[in-house]
Amino acid sequence: MSNDWRTDLADAVARGLAQDGPDAVGESLRSAVDALADHPDAEVAPWCPPVPILGVVACASGSLGVLLRTDGRVTVHLAAGEGALHEQVRSAVEDGVLVAAGAPPEDVPTRDLLRRAGITAPAWFSGSGFTEDDLLRACGFLLTAPR
């Protein structure tokens, strides 16, 4: 073994090709790449849906919406009721808005889980009329939207 992992990897691939052929080596390399994608420090590209998606939850101030825009940006919207929230969001986007359907996640999603799904949860500040759990649940609704 050398002191350079790249050289060792190239040697291992060459041995694998000679012993087991390209299919076996390709399968092993794909598994290794998949493992890298699951690494906690792996970069995750933002999810950029084809149409804006809105996750809505009830909160102390009425209805809280988290809007995922087509460029991957996430914005927070708060209104007295769900109808007013939808009206507010419709005026903020030019494209149609897909309201995230499906059941909300059973557990409050963590910021890390959302990040790994390509969704950056916005910052939360106390006194904003909703809890951080409300915010994360609204973001969690985005996970239920079709990809």
General description of the model:
The protein folds into two domains: about 35 residues; about 90 residues. Helix 1 runs antiparallel to helix 2. The protein has about 150 residues and is an alpha+beta fold. A four-stranded mixed sheet has the order 3-2-1-4. The protein starts with a helix and ends in a 5-residue tail after the last helix.
List key phrases describing it.
4 strands, 147 residues, 4-stranded mixed sheet, 2 domains, alpha+beta, elongated, single chain
Order of helices and strands: HHEEEHEHH
**Major beta sheet, strand line-up:** 3-2-1-4
- Portion in beta strands: 5-15%
Distance between the termini: 44 Å
Count of β-strands: 4
Rg result: 21 Å
User: Sheet bearing the most strands, described?
Assistant: 4 strands, mixed
Number of domains: 2
Instruction: Name the assembly state.
Output: single chain
The average pLDDT score comes to: 86
Q: Please bin the fraction of helical residues.
A: 40-55%
The computed structural class is: alpha+beta
Provide a count of the helices: 5
Low-confidence stretches: none
Structural shape: elongated
Topology summary:
Blueprint: H1 5-20, H2 22-37, E1 53-59, E2 62-68, E3 74-79, H3 82-92, E4 98-99, H4 111-116, H5 132-142
Parallel strand pairs: 1-4
Antiparallel strand pairs: 1-2, 2-3
Helix pairs in contact: 1-2
Quick gist of this model?
The protein is an alpha+beta fold.
